[in-house]
Design brief:
Alpha/beta knot, 4-stranded mixed sheet
């Protein structure tokens, strides 16, 4: 079933299972690899069942590997429920917007970076990888459980709800990230897909473009690295 329709996704790994338990996420099913699990993973299975009895399925190794989102996992994965919050009438806190970021690993990295920098709202535009997809879950390493996530949001919609300044992280144009005055009000950062950059509709809502200064001969950063630089500079400025 499609993750969006089922409102369920898969997670694997000790860290993700621990994060789900800590966040009191609803775990629908545990799936075990038939040839065994690590002691740490087995302890987590016990912890899950101590909280509430959970349906547990054991699969033959080849079948397990065919459904697992990782190549060399710990032998236990969980099917978890998720819910998308309703689109708010106003967003008054810092947020980021992902413009056509299709790679699940990049989307997960952006979620993880936002959570680490204290940005709670992550908004994915049309064309982005589904934020609750298993590969995104893997890359985000638990960030989902501390964020408000929205998807399929057109850029023009943001102007109706966001209260603050809209900044575009642009590799090719704009004022200096470290020299311009910004960050005194809530900020909505726009991050575009690597290679393609921003769509015209997305760039049209930006109040300003800001550029990360790069060494001579280097013309770009990965979107994850660019987001980390921008968001932690914002965190530094806020104190």
């Amino acid at each position: 079933r499609d993750c969006r329709e089922a409102k369920r996704t898969l997670i694997e790994g000790v860290h993700l299972l621990q994060a789900a338990l800590h966040a009191r996420v609803s775990i629908a099913t545990l799936v075990l690899r038939g040839d065994g699990q690590s002691l740490e993973a087995l302890a987590l299975v016990d912890a899950v069942n101590a909280r509430a009895s959970v349906k547990t399925i054991e699969l033959a190794p080849k079948l397990y590997d065919s459904v697992s989102p990782v190549e060399h996992g710990v032998g236990v994965l969980a099917e978890i429920d998720f819910a998308m919050p309703p689109w708010p009438e106003r967003i008054v806190n810092d947020a980021i917007y992902l413009d056509n970021v299709q790679d699940p690993g990049n989307v997960g990295t952006l979620l993880r970076t936002a959570a680490a920098a204290g940005v709670r709202h992550v908004i994915a535009g049309p064309g982005c990888a589904f934020v609750w997809a298993p590969k995104v879950m893997r890359a985000a390493m638990g960030a989902h459980f501390v964020l408000d996530l929205y998807e399929q949001i057109a850029p023009r919609t943001l102007r109706d709800v966001f209260v603050g300044e809209v900044l575009a992280a642009d590799a090719n144009a704009g004022g200096g990230l470290f020299t311009e005055a910004w960050g005194e009000v809530s900020t909505l950062w726009l991050f575009g897909a690597e290679g393609q950059g921003f769509g015209a509709d997305t760039l049209a809502i930006a109040d300003r473009r800001l550029q990360i200064p790069l060494a001579a001969g280097v013309d770009s950063l990965s979107v994850g690295a660019a987001a980390a630089v921008c968001l932690f500079e914002q965190k530094r400025r806020r104190g």
